[in-house]
């Protein structure tokens, strides 16, 4: 029942009272009887009125409850709107701000009171305003824009980066009546992107520097090798002369020139190999050869060195088929590097070389009873230029490239190298290689 129906009801009661009044005036019945009838009728009418009134009261109660629920809901939405992580704004189609949430006022550093009525373009830096206006014109046609990145500014003109999404609000007839703006501050993201880009650039520069370094090393080593060969060649020629043709001590001087030149050449070879390996330019010369023979001759090459230190080298070869396919020079290089280290870092005891096979792979084991390597150093032992003890190394010589070359060569051959060692007790290096190595190019 609504208010006008209720009024109708009151009118009806009033009319009834009038009818009763007329009836009382004109009736021939006794006044007591008339009174009785009239009261009865009036009571009925009043009862109806009470029912109607109760109905209205209930409706009012319901209305109050609905309004309360509506207020609660509105408050909830207001809070959601206000405390949203992004700035929300409502503008009319001229871009005048009608509503702004709390985040928006924080972002633009302006109070709620002053932001309303301002043009949004005020918060766009001057050099961006033309672009902003043309986007607004575009917006009239396309109705919405997503993730439009544009710098904005606070009331005090402090700039920050934003990503904006805008949608058009329409009235019932479908005419645009304003826009809803979601403005996200992306300054932190932009800074992170810039940092990432800087790191990428730095990385590229580093890669380029590494490439140039490898190239430089390769060129330098090559250039050094040529005069070294002359020194080696001529000192060897000199030594062929009969003993008495040398002035006193000259022969031993030439011998020292020769041995120093040999050592220098080996170092140059190492640098050259390493720079080639690092640049991925080293190719394996694959061929079939006898691994047992190669091990025996390599050990013989270093036999003198071991003898000078009173060390024995024991060789154990356990191969059912010694033929393998690999680059024999490079396999020799691996073995010689490990073996010369074993001799270099062992003063008492012996060096054992063992060769065995495990299915389609072969294993070279070089074991010594030398100074050993601490657990902490074991992790870095295969890194280039890594030498465990600088003083010791100065005594023993070396570049710190030997094991790095071994590691890279073994990788190139699709094998693996591992080391086990205990300080003061010796070291064991194990190289595992496929019996048949395939070309890496
Ligand atoms: P270097 O030219 O110094 O020998 P390497 O790469 O061959 O370079 O070896 C790196 C370091 O690892 C050596 O300086 C040494 O400290 C340690 N090392 C290598 N082999 C052994 C070994 N058999 N016993 C003890 N230390 C070793």
Fold blueprint:
Blueprint: H1 3-26, H2 31-82, E1 87-91, E2 97-100, H3 102-107, H4 112-115, H5 129-142, E3 144-153, E4 159-170, E5 176-185, H6 187-239, H7 250-278, E6 287-290, H8 291-308, E7 312-318, E8 323-326, H9 328-344, E9 350-358, E10 361-368, H10 375-378, H11 390-396, H12 402-412, E11 416-422, E12 426-434
The structure holds adenosine-5'-diphosphate.
Adenosine-5'-diphosphate is lined by residues 337, 341-342, 345, 368, 370-373, 381, 386-389, 393, 398-404, 427.
Question: What does this protein structure show overall?
Answer:
This protein has helices at residues 3-26, 31-82, 102-107, 112-115, 129-142, 187-239, 250-278, 291-308, 328-344, 375-378, 390-396, 402-412, and strands spanning 87-91, 97-100, 144-153, 159-170, 176-185, 287-290, 312-318, 323-326, 350-358, 361-368, 416-422, 426-434. It is an alpha+beta fold and 441 residues long. It has 4 domains: 3-81; 83-185, Beta-Lactamase (2-Layer Sandwich); 196-279, Helix Hairpins; 287-434, Heat Shock Protein 90 (2-Layer Sandwich), CATH 3.30.565. The strands form 3 sheets. It has a 5-stranded antiparallel sheet with strand order 2-1-5-4-3, with helices on both faces. A 5-stranded mixed sheet has the order 7-9-10-12-11, with helices on one face. It has a two-stranded antiparallel ribbon with strand order 6-8. Bound molecules: adenosine-5'-diphosphate (ADP). Adenosine-5'-diphosphate (ADP) binds next to α9 and α12.
């Amino acid at each position: 029942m609504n208010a006008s129906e209720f009024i109708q009801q009151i009118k009806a009661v009033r009319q009834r009272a009038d009818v009763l009044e007329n009836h009382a005036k004109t009736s021939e019945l006794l006044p007591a009887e008339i009174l009785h009838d009239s009261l009865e009728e009036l009571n009925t009418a009043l009862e109806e009125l009470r029912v109607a009134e109760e109905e209205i009261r209930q409706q009012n109660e319901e209305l109050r409850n609905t309004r309360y629920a509506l207020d609660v809901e509105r408050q909830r939405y207001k809070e959601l709107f206000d405390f949203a992580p992004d700035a929300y704004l409502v503008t009319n189609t001229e871009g005048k701000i009608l509503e702004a949430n709390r985040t928006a006022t924080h972002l633009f550093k302006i109070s709620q009171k002053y932001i309303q009525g301002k043009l949004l373009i005020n918060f766009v830096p001057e050099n961006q305003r033309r672009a902003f206006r043309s986007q607004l014109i575009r917006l009239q046609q396309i109705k919405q824009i997503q993730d439009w990145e544009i710098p904005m500014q606070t009331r005090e003109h402090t700039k920050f980066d934003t990503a904006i999404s805008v949608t058009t609000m329409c009235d019932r007839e479908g005419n645009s009546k304003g826009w809803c703006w979601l403005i996200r501050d992306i300054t932190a993201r932009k800074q992170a992107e810039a940092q990432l880009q800087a790191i990428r650039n730095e990385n590229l520069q580093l890669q380029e520097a590494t490439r140039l370094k490898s190239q430089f090393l390769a060129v330098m080593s090559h250039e050094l090798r040529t005069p070294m060969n002359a020194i080696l060649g001529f000192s060897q020629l000199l030594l062929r002369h009969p003993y008495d043709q040398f002035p006193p001590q000259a022969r031993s001087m030439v011998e020292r020139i020769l041995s120093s030149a040999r050592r220098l050449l080996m170092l140059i070879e190492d640098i050259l190999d390493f720079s080639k390996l690092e640049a991925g330019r080293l190719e394996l010369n694959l061929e079939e050869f006898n691994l047992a023979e190669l091990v025996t001759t390599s050990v013989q090459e270093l036999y003198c060195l071991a003898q000078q230190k009173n060390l024995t080298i024991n060789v154990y070869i356990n191969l059912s088929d010694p033929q393998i396919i690999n680059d024999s020079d490079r396999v020799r290089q691996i073995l010689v590097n490990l073996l010369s280290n074993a001799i270099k870092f062992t003063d008492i005891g012996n060096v054992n070389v063992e060769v065995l096979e495990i299915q389609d792979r072969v294993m070279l084991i070089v074991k010594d009873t030398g100074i050993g390597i601490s657990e902490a150093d074991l992790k870095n032992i295969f890194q280039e230029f890594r030498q465990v003890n600088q003083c010791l190394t100065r005594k023993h010589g070396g570049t710190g490239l030997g094991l790095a070359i071994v590691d890279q060569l073994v990788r190139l051959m699709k094998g693996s190298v591992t080391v086990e060692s205990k300080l003061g007790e010796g070291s064991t290096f194990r190289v595992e290689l496929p019996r048949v190595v395939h070309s890496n190019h």
